[in-house]
Amino acid sequence: TMKIIMDTDPGIDDAAALTMAINDPAIDLKLVTAVAGNVTVDKTTANALKIVHFFGKDKEIPVAMGAQQPLIKPFEDAARIHGASGMEGYDFGDDYGEPIKKSAVEALHDAIMAEDEVILVPTGSYTNIALLFSQYPEVKSHIKKIVAMGGSISGGNMTSIAEFNVFTDPDAAKIMYNSGVPIVTVGLDVTLKALITSETLNALKTMNETGKMLYGLISHYNDVSGDGHPMHDVNTIFYLLHPEAYTTKKLWVDIQTDGPAIGGMVADIRGAYHDGKTNAEVCVDIDADAFNKWFLEEVSHMK
Ligand code: BDR
Ligand code: CA
Prior knowledge:
Elements: E1 2-8, H1 12-23, E2 27-34, H2 41-54, E3 63-65, H3 79-82, H4 104-113, E4 118-122, H5 127-135, E5 143-149, H6 164-168, H7 170-177, E6 183-186, H8 188-191, E7 195-197, H9 198-205, H10 209-219, E8 228-230, H11 234-241, E9 246-251, E10 253-255, E11 265-267, E12 280-286, H12 288-300
Parallel strand pairs: 1-2, 1-4, 2-3, 4-5, 5-6, 6-12
Antiparallel strand pairs: 7-8, 9-12, 10-11
Bound molecules: beta-D-ribofuranose and calcium ion.
Calcium ion is lined by residues 9, 11, 13-14, 37-38, 123-124, 233.
């Protein structure tokens, strides 16, 4: 099994990504950390706890609270997309437990150092990871790779160039991309193609309790594209389990941290400026049918 740690800001697509990671037998989810992003960090932490508790994994999977705000840029949420709580559309009750006492950075440090090799999966902005790398650079050699939702080399969803997770904390993104840890970029280039179709959504509705929960959340998700909802963060988990469904390109990517292109990702597509060196494997295409089929198949095995 793959040992992974998720750093998230649930968020409806984060909730779906957690759902997949918690339930797939090929994945061993060691820790969930929360960061401010789609909503404030107290809410993203509560939402992560709700999903872990929904699947009865409170004992096995600790949840730790992380950064309240980006490193430098003022915090702006995305409640207009994910609703006031960040996870509208399903009643998880009031009793979903508490985060552990350790901060996200301390919890990440301890969980990563306890393993020889772990995969880090950020689906929010990268503030916790930037703080971790600055404070505890020794963790880097224990991270096999980072599979990160965020960025885009083909246009943004916040500005013409910037994607939300990178836009929220561009300074953190820059630190992560310059860290030397291998990174797979799962950005809008693929996530805007991996739509949950209305057919898939309807099939979820009556499948089981998990299907009902996801149906509720996704029906309240204001991220709509044509006939479907982009399941951005879920692509990190689909990539881990089915890399063959993605086409990737090794590139050097830089992050813009100020000016009108703030939060933008610039790829050296000709390899002209970095002596052919690369710092990311960028996902550029995906088999969207396979994604929908897999999504339903996964949920069909859940509670
Ligand atoms: C990203 O932004 C967030 O709103 C989503 O959860 C996803 O991580 C997509 O740009
Ligand atoms: Ca997210």
